[in-house]
Amino acid sequence: MKAGFTPLTRALLCLSLSWSAFAEAPVVDDSENFALMENNQAAYARPLTAAADDDTADVTETPIARDTGADALTRDNAALINKIQGLQQELQELRGQLEVQAHDLKRLQEQQLSFYKDLDARLRMPSASTSPTDTSPKAAALPEADRAKIAALPAVAPTGVMTEQQSYLAAYELVKNRRFTEALNAMQAFTERYPSGEYTANAEYWLGELYLVKEAWPQAMQHFETVITRFPTSSKVSASMLKMGYALAASGDKAHARERLQQVVSQFPDTQAALLASERLETLKAG
């Protein structure tokens, strides 16, 4: 008799089979899942690594960018230094030019002072062409007819300005060559021909100087006074005042001489004329 299975037995049998199936199944899905996770991690790791690479690139590029900025700053600093050095060189050149000009100016002032002192020394030297009693301006002057001939000489240049200039320079050349009598006549003729010319004040001044050489004090003072009163803007005014003081002192009028010399110091400070006036004032005080 074939044994039959009761409903309870069949249920227990199915349950037992079910448990044995679960117990014998391999863990393949879990392994594959781990592998898949590893692949996924690798897949995610690549972008992260690329991003990390990018970050690393950024990190490595940042110093490069900073280096470029530093190079630009270095170039700017170098350009600024070159510009400063160029300005310093220009300043040095300008200082050199100023020193040269100052030297030239000092040399001219020394020449002018030497010239004044030379003329002053002539006043104290006895003149070979005149005697102490030869103080009359007529003794050194040409006759009126001769002076008229000189004044009537035709002009060499086509313009009056050049004629005046040439005439004055010719007369002044006689002064420089110490041909005092001829120079006096030439300067006198010049002032008669050009009473209000461009060089008339200079000619009047040299007439005063020439009469000082001849110790003709009144005539010298007359010409110096002409420069002071008629040509107040002339460059010869300070020298005329100075020599007026010399003439007054030489003539014995020391009080008025001191007044004139002090006037030079007051009106023309820091000039060669003021320096000479101060020296003569000291001499007058000592005397």
From TrEMBL:
Keywords: Cell cycle, Cell division, Coiled coil, Periplasm, Signal. Residues 75-131 form the YbgF trimerisation domain. Residues 1-23 form the signal peptide. The keyword Cell cycle applies. It comes from the Bacteria. One of its GO terms (biological process) is FtsZ-dependent cytokinesis. Residues 162-285 form the Outer membrane lipoprotein BamD-like domain. HAMAP family: CpoB. Mediates coordination of peptidoglycan synthesis and outer membrane constriction during cell division. Belongs to the CpoB family. This is Cell division coordinator CpoB. It comes from Legionella geestiana. The gene is cpoB.
